[in-house]
Specification:
single chain; 270 residues; alpha+beta; L-fuculose-1-phosphate Aldolase; 2 domains; 9-stranded mixed β-sheet; binds 1,3-dihydroxyacetonephosphate; binds zinc ion
């Protein structure tokens, strides 16, 4: 059995949570990540027949039965993940149609997975249905995107177009745009279901007055997706109160589509 702390998925998770904390996106216990693992890879590091304890999930997701996830703990601080990964992270395998999570490693102080587990697991189901390569769901509280939800129209087309107009490469990084949910109570199955529905058409879902969800094939790509949207929101907040003299026109966006071989969300460009 190889040492679990040397597993590439764990090393990468520690790097990512630390980096997100350093970006100021995850104050206190803010934010959570789930990473879909390959069962065969997990078995190189853990005796997967040994279940430490079983945790009820409070939802059903038969599609995820037998799937392994590395996930951040509820109430845990991203800044502490690197110093105590086994306390702040856990590896679970879903069972009983997703109703229960078998803990195989971590949460060693008796803790459990993030309170946003429903939104994560339901989003994995949604993303896997449109892209079988999807492995990551990431949630955080980046200040500029969050601030933007107080002063910008929450219409998804309008919100997306503003972000696309803030940096040339935004449309290249998230051509499908950004979906937006109005304020909803977090940590519930309801916000989980609403997020998953939005995840069917975009990898970024803004939670108004709360934060953002990103999804992608790996931690780097998902981090980069949120990073790009957050940078655009930062530029928006720098200029929103100033007279707008220039912008990236729809004609320029169409040139970007051709140059980078991407297709903007239907109906979002004139
Ligand atoms: P957890 O500590 O349960 O992960 O919650 C943090 C959060 O960001 C809730 O939306
Ligand atoms: Zn949150």
């Amino acid at each position: 059995m190889k040492p679990i702390l040397e597993a590439p998925f764990l090393v990468e998770m520690i790097r990512t949570t630390t980096n997100m904390y350093n970006h100021g996106w995850d104050e206190r216990n803010g934010g959570n990540i789930s990473l879909l693992l390959d069962g065969k890879e997990v078995a190189q590091y853990l005796d997967v027949r040994h279940v430490i304890r079983t945790i009820p999930t409070g939802f059903t997701a038969p599609e995820l039965d037998g799937r392994y996830f590395l996930v951040t703990g509820t109430g845990k601080y991203f800044k502490n993940v690197e110093v105590a990964p086994d306390v702040n992270l856990g590896i679970v395998r879903l069972a009983d149609s997703g109703r229960q999570a078998d803990l195989l490693w971590g949460f060693s102080d008796g803790g459990q997975f993030t309170s946003e587990f429903p939104a994560h697991m339901m989003s994995h189901v949604a993303r896997l249905s449109v892209d079988p390569a999807n492995r990551v769901v990431m949630h955080c509280h980046p200040a500029n995107l969050l601030a933007m939800t107080y002063v910008h129209d929450l219409d998804e087309r309008a919100f997306t177009r503003t972000l696309w107009q803030m940096c040339t490469e935004c449309i290249v990084v998230f051509p499908e745009g950004v979906n937006v949910l109005p304020w909803m109570l977090c940590g519930t199955n309801e916000i989980g279901e609403a997020t998953a529905e939005k995840m069917k058409t975009a990898r970024l879902v803004v939670w108004a007055q709360h934060g953002i969800y990103g999804a992608g094939k790996d931690l780097d790509e998902t981090f980069g997706l949120i990073e790009t949207a957050e940078k655009a929101a930062e530029i928006y907040l720098k200029i929103a109160h100033l007279p707008l003299l220039n912008t990236i026109s729809d004609d320029a966006m169409h040139q970007l589509e051709k140059r980078f071989g991407i297709k903007a969300r239907a109906g979002y460009l004139d």
